[in-house]
Amino acid sequence: MAQSNILVYLLRHDLRLSDNPVFHRLATQTDHGFTHLLPVYIFPAQQVQVSGFIQDGSPCPYPEARGTVSKVWRTGPHRARFIAQSVWDLKESLESVESGLVLRVGLMSDVAEALIEGLQQNQDKVGAVWMTSEEGAEERRDQKAVSAICKKLGTDFLLWDDEKYYVDDRDVSTPIKEIPDVFTTYRKSIEPLRSRPRDTLPRPEKGKLPPMVEVSRIPPQHDPFTMPMKYKELEESLLSPVREFLPSISSHPDGVKSAHPFQGGETAAYERLRHLIKEGFMHSYKETRNGLVGSAYSTKLSAFLALGCITARQVHHELLKYEDGTEPDYEHSKGFKEGENEGTSAVRFELLWRDYMRLCTKKFRHRLFRVEGFRGYDSGEGTDAGAKKQKWKSANKDDALPDQKPTPEEVAEIIQRFYAGTTGMGLIDASQRELIHTGYTSNRARQNVASFLAKHLGIDWRYGAEWYEMLLVDYDVSSNWANWQYVAGVGNDPRGEARIFNPVKQAFEYDKEGAYVRTWVPEVKSLERLENVFQVSTTPEEELEEAGLKDNIMVTDPVKRIEYLVEGKPKNSKRPFHRARRARRAAPGGGGHDGGGRSENQTSGSSQPGPGPGPGHSPDGSAAHRGSPHRGGRGGRGGGFNYGPSRRGAYTGRGRGFYPGYNPRGGYYAGLSPRGGYPVGFPNPFPSGPPPS
Fold first, then answer.
1. Separation between Cα atoms, residue 406 and residue 394, nearest integer Å
2. What domains can you pick out in the chain, each with its CATH number?
3. pTM for the full model?
4. Which tens digits make up the pLDDT trace of 147-186?
5. Please, are residues 41 and 103 in contact by the beta-carbon 8 Å criterion?
6. Residues annotated in a binding site
7. In the chain, is it the N or the C terminus that has fewer CB atoms within a 10 Å radius of its CB?
8. Is the CB of residue 128 less than 8 Å from the CB of residue 157?
9. How far apart are CA 535 and CA 267, in angstroms?
């Protein structure tokens, strides 16, 4: 190529052709000076297990892509497939406008160096390398590494603003260090939301992008890796190393469909968006968003947004066409040409929450991944002493306290059961099994799962965050990690550790007929009473025998029991970690039990803390902490009262059904409130929290 001047565009989470500022600039302006364009997508070896691309049996030059804490794969089969589909869709879209996409595996800096050096050896000039800026710690390191390579090789380097979010960074006047630590404060500074996004950018026309570099001149993938030429081979290379991610996985329930059956890519993203509007799902979104079953209760756009297959402002402007009545295809949709409605307003609210999670990542950076979270970082800037002192239970002996109960070995077993969905807590188990089999679970379920691990079990919340990173098709570094911090009480939730979900109460509220739990935990399908479906260990012996569950581990040794009021009395006792069924009971007046059946001494009027304190709209409802006038003040993270008439929802400030001024005879036990108790008595009903991911 005589007098060539090549632009290398390294794509990451900007997998779209339309509303892409880089492609738009190259297609609409001629002063950029580049003769050729080389779009490149790299499967990053530190995040994706790339050993499946090695065909000759050679060892992989990169360490396995596993989580730091849990050691699970960082990218599991569901997300790997969705990424592959999204990348391939972009490749085909670029080819349709006479361009293309080169696929590579490795570290971004290694691949960039090999490409630049290879092109230079062919006497081709690489004028610049462009990337879209991102805020994750690894993503920032990649940016620095590629910048250093470019400097060494005499090539310009440019970072573009990430424009896939709702409000453009350039339109936010608040310095990043001054971004409020409470979402509501930030939201009020941004409103009205409907007028904030910038216009979208059109899809480049055919032949308008600089021509693709000739295939014969593109340096090959470096050894020992081989890049497949067909999609099926690409998918198999990504999935083959990570298919086995648990020692034992429950079988997929017969006939059960995924709530997220969508393929990845810009094409599917836009089809999904238009379908949601045409079928009226955007209009009804506010009422349905807490659903658990089916594909229609939420937008399911989060996976597309995470990879940049679609932008938040594209969602906004498509909603405007419907609200303003400018798109004839939507004329039969409920609410057409009637302006913003509750559903579309709620969608915008959620898009802003995604923005906010990213800004928190930008503000706190590496603290996103620290166990002490945003609240516990080592500086004088609003350090939360409680968060700094918190010691989480861990399966790692080096991280655990010497006298940790349960022991690290016991915690490791609990974590495996938590992952596999055999805890005995119906809503938690159903969510975990759905996630294992489909790569998706609802926002409502996610909040309960996170709260259960972090606050009911007191286990290092990062075990859950890394599990979600592996399996969720819609994993996004900011949304996942910041939301886990939020629910675990170490993030930017103003109520912090005081917000706890009671998964039994939540199941009664959001799975009113038990359909969700019965679907994903078929073992309990035949049980008649919901309290048994939602907590199988409460089932009478004769019914367990009839259902074939008498010896099931969810019955004989549930990871946790949570008290919940049904028909006027609690259905089960509270224990931080449940002892095995028929094990020796504690003496009267005793408290909960650890994993080995040993009692934790608790006296009336006070108690020892239980075991601990886990993306998303308003978190609500949770376990109450109270003492029993009949059982010596046994504490726990359950809810309800053990006497008097039925008071469904009458929890100690944890749910929407709080009764002002109502004080149960047993009192409230500060010792069992999460780490430090409530500073001003029992809490009032709490405000809204994060929107769904």
1. 9
2. 1-162 (3.40.50.620), 266-369 (1.25.40.80), 392-672 (1.10.579.10)
3. 0.82
4. 999 999 999 999 999 999 999 999 998 999 999 999 999 9
5. yes
6. 285, 298-302, 474-476
7. N
8. yes
9. 42
